Amino acid sequence: MAITDILSAKDIESALSSCQADDSFNYKSFFSTVGLTSKTPDQIKKVFGILDQDKSGFIEEEELQLFLKNFSSSARVLTSAETKAFLAAGDTDGDGKIGVEEFQSLVKA
């Protein structure tokens, strides 16, 4: 499944253009601009499955750093500070990774 099966290419392009500069990524505005906040829990779960590159059932720090590349191969990687802030926001149980329920909560926050 491609991410464009769930989210529109136009929304993805718009969301990516809003965070091209280092340290400009804001997950709340990105999720909103890309249209993820208006998706069903099942659709959000499918996006999670795409982001979970190693299919471990979790999005780990390394996968978070490459978060934007899941939307476009030409997108930048997140900076260390952005990655750590993103992980801290989503990792509600403190295990150092984001599970599917945590991701769904983060998207709807």
3D structure, described in words:
This protein has helices at residues 9-17, 27-33, 41-51, 61-65, 80-90, 100-108, and strands at 58-59, 98-99. The protein is mostly helical and 109 residues long. Helix 3 crosses helix 6 (100-108). It is globular, with a radius of gyration of 12 Å. The chain starts with 8 loop residues before the first helix and ends with a helix.
Secondary structure layout:
Blueprint lengths: L8 H9 L9 H7 L7 H11 L6 E2 L1 H5 L14 H11 L7 E2 H9 L1
Helix pairs in contact: 1-2, 3-6
Keywords: Calcium, Metal-binding, Repeat
Pfam families: EF-hand_7 (PF13499)
Function: In muscle, parvalbumin is thought to be involved in relaxation after contraction. It binds two calcium ions.
Order of helices and strands: HHHEHHEH
Average pLDDT, to the nearest integer?
96
Approximate strand percentage = under 5%
What does the main sheet amount to? 2 strands, antiparallel
From the helix content, strand content and strand pairing, which structural class follows? mainly alpha
Secondary structure tally: strands: 2
Ranges where pLDDT stays below 50 over 5 or more residues in a row are none
Helix content: 40-55%
Radius of gyration: 12 Å
